[in-house]
């Protein structure tokens, strides 16, 4: 939608942060968090769509897509209002869903990851729309899911498909994940490594250890498989990615007896891989090694894979430069452009437009007494304001 007048409703990023934290939106429950955000955005003139998605065997997830303006380019902020469980509530110094101020810090589940960043972008959008007198040369949108911390089935992916079906295009996207390791301004994410997990089960024949010729021990073949997989150097990294790494996360026989050769042995591994690989190629390699060993040693194999995302890179360019310039203007330091860390919903968005990530400091995310700095939330709002102003050519 378009608006000829600037919005009259100013957004306080701290007050909105606290209002969002008060909603116990543990995945997939929304608990009214999207209502809080929708009310704030509608006050600015955003057109809001609530999108409830479900799938057999999964829980319903509520999502929000909101847009101010009709024209291109469409700059989208993507994030999530769902949070991980509080854990041991008794270990918190206060109710995890009742925001608490202590000096410069706001405590509460979701403060760092990532309700305060959502509030900061909403406040920044309000400032830029006001400076543009309500008439932007383009559009600002929000794609907010309630399924980022969960299985990520009924969230961002389905919103993006809904948008594609509606002819709703995003030109550039900023994801507000907590990207900074130590202090605000440390790091912008311009890509992510992929993640592939494998479950390997070797099946032999159970028997008495004194009569090994009557059994087929699955443990030696499994150990040989793991040895072959581990010794391979996947790559040495490149200009934008660290080397890919394979980690064995579990080895299990489930055999308490000392005189029984077990029937099967299993292992789980995960590979975090850079853009030198894709999941199909890595899966084929693992399958070949497993099959070769099992054939050589006379046992059978069960193999299962799960891919949470492919490696991707948004090459340094206008979007990352505008964001880095805004960070430097507010904080006086230039952030590193990085692809480190785990996965995020940027892995889905990268198929639709260039995407970068920048939010708060992530040290306390998912922990007891999760918190964010009030000063950082204010600075993040200023950074987002400068980024949008630069993007749309709005004078400060």
How would you describe what is shown here?
By secondary structure, the protein is of the alpha+beta class. It folds into 2 domains: 13-192 and 311-392, Aminopeptidase (3-Layer(aba) Sandwich); 194-309, Alpha-Beta Plaits (2-Layer Sandwich). The chain is built from 9 helices and 19 strands. Strand 4 (100-102) and strand 5 form a beta hairpin. Helix 1 (13-21) runs antiparallel to helix 2 and helix 5 (219-231) packs antiparallel against helix 6 (279-297). The protein is elongated, with a radius of gyration of 24 Å. The mean pLDDT is 96.
Produce the secondary structure layout:
Elements (H helix, E strand, L loop, with lengths): L12 H9 L11 H10 L4 E7 L7 E8 L5 E7 L19 E3 L2 E3 L3 H21 L7 E7 L10 H11 L5 E4 L11 E3 L1 E2 L1 E10 L3 E2 L10 H13 L13 E8 L7 E2 L2 E10 L5 H19 L2 E10 L2 E2 L4 H14 L4 E3 L7 H4 L5 E3 L13 E3 H19 L4
Features:
alpha+beta; 24% strand; Alpha-Beta Plaits; Aminopeptidase; 9 helices; 396 residues
Task: Provide a short characterization of the protein structure.
By secondary structure, the chain is of the alpha+beta class. It has 2 domains: 13-192 and 311-392, 3-Layer(aba) Sandwich (Aminopeptidase); 194-309, Alpha-Beta Plaits. Helices cover 30% and strands 24% of the residues.
